[in-house]
C-alpha cells in the first residue's frame, strides 16, 4: 500500500499523491473555502504553465484560445466526477461499516427487494452524518480498486507511475537548462555537469520519507506566485514601452503545433489526483463545487494573461521553451536572476517528494517489493534513474510536457474519472434508484453523455499525438 509521504499538514502539491490511503480525518485542521481556493490554485499553477507561452506562440493565437478554453472546461467536468465518486465511496464505506455493527440491515448492500421508501429512510434517518458526506480521504488508487476492480487499479497505478516519471524528467531537464542558461557556458559541458550535480545533490533526499512538508510547500507557493506575477508585470511594461509584435506577424493557426499544444494544456490543468486532499479539510463541503469552479476560471484567466502577453511581446522564435529564461537578460539584474533561477528553487524542493511518491506507488504496483531486502532503496533507484536517463538524451522541456500530458496525463485526467463515474453510478442505480435526490455532491453533469464526451476527448487528444 502506498503511503501519503508527500503532503504537508495543509498545503498539498499537485504532484504529490498517494495510492490507497484512506480513513484520514481532518477534524482538527479544517480550513475555509477561501483557503481551499488558494491551495487548489497553487496546485494548478505549476511548471506546465511555463511551457505554454512558447507552444501557443507557435501554434497560433486562435489555436491557443480554443485549446485553453476547451481543455479547462473538460478538466472541470472530470473534476466534478471525482468529487461525486469520492462522496459515493464515503457512502459505500459508511454503510458497510453500519451494517457490520448491526445498527441497520439496509443500506447500499441491502437486497433490492426492500421498498425504496424504507431504503431512503435508512440512509437519511439512521446514518449520521448524511450518507454522501465526505469525511474520509480515498485516493484515486483506492477508488479505482473499489469501483473498477484489480484491473482498473493496476491500470491507474501504471499510468500514475508513468506520469510521475515524466514529472521527474521535466524537473531534471528544467533545472539543468536553467542553470546552464544562467551561467552561459558551453552547452555540451554545462548542461550535463549541472544535471549530474543536481542529481548528486538532490538524489540522496529521495531515499527518505517526508511526512511534514508544510514549510517547504509554503516556500514553493510564495516563490511560484511571486515569479508568475512578476513575469506578467514585466511583460506588460515592456509592451507599454513599445516592444510588441506587429499584428501581421502574429501566427493565428498552425495545425501541427496545435496537436502538441493539446498535451501541454492537459498537463497544465490537471489536479485530479490531488482532489481528495484538497476537499477533505474543507470545513463547509457544500462549497466544494464553488471552489473548483472559481479556481478553474481564475487559472484560465491567469494562463491567458501570461501566455498572450508573451505572444504579443515577442515573436514565436524568440520565446524560449522554458518561459522564465526569457527574462535572463532583463536590465534589472536582481529580477533577472530571480526569474532565471526560479525553477531551480521550486523544482528542486519538490523533486525528492515526487520521487518518494513514485517509489511508494511502484511498491504498491509490484507486491514483490514486500519480500525484497532493501526494497525501499531498490525502488528508489528504480524511480530515480529512468528520468535521469531521459534527461540525458532529451533536453526539450516542451516536448516532455506534451508527451506526459498526452498519454499518462490523459488517463489520470479523463479516463480514470470518467470510468469511475460510470461504474459508481451503475452500482448506485442498482442499489439506490433515487440516489440523485440524496447525493448533495453529485456532478452537475449527470447525463452519461458527458462522461462519454470526456472519454472521446481523451481519445481525440491521444490520436492527435499518434497519427
Automatic annotation (TrEMBL):
Any one cellular-component term (Gene Ontology): membrane
Residue span, Amino acid transporter transmembrane domain: 32-433
InterPro entries linked to this entry: AA_transpt_TM (IPR013057)
Membrane topology term: Multi-pass membrane protein
Location of the protein in the cell: Membrane
Membrane-spanning intervals of the chain: 35-56, 62-87, 146-165, 189-210, 222-241, 261-280, 292-312, 332-358, 378-394, 400-424, 445-466
Keywords, comma-separated and alphabetical: Glycoprotein, Membrane, Transmembrane, Transmembrane helix
Pfam families: Aa_trans
Record PANTHER family: TRANSMEMBRANE PROTEIN 104, TRANSMEMBRANE PROTEIN 104-RELATED
Family: Belongs to the TMEM104 family.
Protein name (Swiss-Prot/TrEMBL): Amino acid transporter transmembrane domain-containing protein
